[in-house]
Amino acid sequence: MKKYTFLLVIMALGLLSCGDDDKPVVPELDKLTQVICTKEADVVFFAYINYTNDDKIASIDFVDGKNIPFIYVDKKITMMNPEEGVERIEYILGGLVVTDKSVMKKNAFDGKIYTSDNYKYQYNGSSLTGASRTMTWPKEGEEGYESQTFEKEETYAWENSNVVLFTQDKKRIEYKYGTALTPSNFPWRVIPSFNPVGFDAFSPINLLYGNRSRNLPESATYYSLSGEDDTTAKYTYHFTTTGDYITGMTIQEQTNSTDKIAKQTTYEYKFIYSK
Prior knowledge:
mainly beta, 275 residues, Porin
């Protein structure tokens, strides 16, 4: 597989601009335009990724009717109506990476829009190492808001250019990798989730979080250090490639706990690209 630098990916997405005289020769990459996920023949999600004429993300449309438009103003990218109960999500870019993310919701008491969650990201060079989170909520029955800050909401540990551990409080998910390289136009990354099977793991917005893992994952294992939760889960990855592109993937999920029967689930993914 051809491996291009993160800088070239960002340029391909149109997030950097330069004049014709100093613009380098960049190999043209096909962009990811469709992601389809099924679970035991049932569609989990079917997403179309649309682009502007200058190769920025214009919108992400799901076949269930959900539409997420993107708005660009200077160094701010806004996703409108990304999920139920959320008015918008705002990303602030510092250089080539997201440094700040704000989740905006409507106050149920007065109808005003406020920031319910604010994330501030930390990097070592261009590698994401962690994030703090400030949660804010309206006071019930009176004006004003209350808030609480978690300094280590997200923590990422790197080894051999791969994220090998994501932690949040007492929860852990460990990743193991093979030798195959992650294609530069395949936007998979280790996301802040302990059930990494949803669309967020493949959203093109992932390309704005700096370096991604150099290699493709072989497995991920979730567990908790809390004595109140003995659930474990293992995710095994298998990829299908066509030329330089990943066109298919299977994730086999196996969950276990003392009070539940072990459960196995298979997720099938299809990836489609276009110019």
